[in-house]
């Protein structure tokens, strides 16, 4: 069996809702039925075979070729299987993803991995704002799984994050970890202003000294036994995190946000 491959024929002016093209929703469909699926494109609908050339038969292994930034909702509610994207993608990548794997070799738009429940999401480029965050009006963002970003991320990464692991090899914008309830965010690059704003619990692992507000307390330097175990779990990923397990042998710990519960922590490499 070969991967079910969608190769884009042309780039449209309006955005495209790609949410119907996930492994669990295509299960049991013939190639002709998949070709006839209609995707929302602005105010109109467009057949899949009008937009893509289709080949392959392995529905559990989907590949999207020639992708660009107006393809939204790729991998929405994915529940098993693999999606590989060559090119950039739009907003809401992996929204409410339940299991499986998504890999993107380009950049992504806003709200990637928003309210993700489980699975693995890897982005080789940069991401927009609200990575692993909650949708507007909701109170719980990413609830589980792992997100690896090899580039930079925008503002509000991990906003309202509830559980899971967010690994960022590049820089993070303002309000990283804002209103965080639990989970782990690791940033190898630099962070912006208002780090951990109103976070209740959770852990922020940083390679560079951040700008912290007065509501974070300096708790001194520590050697923490759980960190080698945490970093050992990163060995299965193709990432700098798998090669830098000794970085956090000793850390400077800050507790906060004291304007909230104050049970969160910022751990900075010494």
Notable characteristics:
270 residues
Q: Can you describe what's shown?
A:
The chain has 270 residues and is mostly beta strands. The protein has a domain at 110-269. Helix content is 7%, strand content 33%. It has helices at residues 23-26, 31-35, 48-51, 226-232; strands at residues 3-8, 16-17, 38-41, 44-47, 52-55, 58-67, 71-72, 79-87, 99-104, 120-123, 143-149, 163-168, 184-187, 203-206, 217-222, 251-256, 264-269. The strands form 3 sheets. The protein has a 13-stranded mixed beta sheet. Strands 2-7 form a two-stranded parallel sheet. The mean pLDDT is 95.
Short structural summary:
The chain is mainly beta and 270 residues long. It has helices at 23-26, 31-35, 48-51, 226-232; strands at residues 3-8, 16-17, 38-41, 44-47, 52-55, 58-67, 71-72, 79-87, 99-104, 120-123, 143-149, 163-168, 184-187, 203-206, 217-222, 251-256, 264-269. The chain has a 13-stranded mixed β-sheet with strand order 5-1-6-8-9-10-11-12-13-14-17-16-15.
């Amino acid at each position: 069996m070969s991967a079910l491959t969608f190769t884009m024929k042309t780039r449209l002016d309006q955005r495209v809702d790609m949410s119907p093209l996930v492994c669990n929703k295509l299960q049991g469909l013939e190639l002709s039925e998949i070709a006839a699926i209609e995707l929302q494109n602005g105010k109109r609908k467009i057949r899949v075979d009008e937009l893509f050339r289709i080949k392959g038969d392995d529905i559990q292994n989907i590949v999207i070729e020639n992708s660009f930034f107006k393809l939204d909702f790729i991998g929405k509610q994915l529940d098993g299987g693999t999606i590989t994207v060559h090119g950039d993608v739009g907003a809401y990548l992996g929204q409410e993803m339940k299991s499986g794997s998504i890999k993107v070799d380009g950049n992504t738009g806003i709200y990637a991995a928003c309210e993700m429940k489980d699975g693995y999401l890897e982005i080789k480029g940069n991401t927009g704002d609200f990575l692993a965050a909650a949708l507007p009006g909701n109170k719980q963002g990413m609830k589980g799984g792992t997100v690896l970003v090899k580039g930079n991320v925008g503002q509000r990464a991990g906003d309202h994050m509830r559980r899971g692991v967010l690994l960022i090899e590049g820089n993070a914008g303002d309000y990283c970890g804002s209103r965080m309830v639990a989970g782990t965010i690791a940033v190898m690059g630099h962070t912006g202003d208002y780090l951990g704003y109103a976070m209740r619990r959770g852990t922020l692992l940083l390679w560079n000294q951040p700008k912290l507000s007065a509501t974070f307390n300096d708790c001194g330097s520590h050697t923490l036994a759980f960190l080698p175990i945490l970093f050992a779990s990163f060995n299965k990923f193709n990432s700098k995190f798998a090669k830098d397990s000794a970085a956090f042998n000793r850390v400077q710990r800050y507790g906060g946000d004291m304007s909230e519960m104050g049970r969160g922590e910022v751990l900075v490499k010494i």
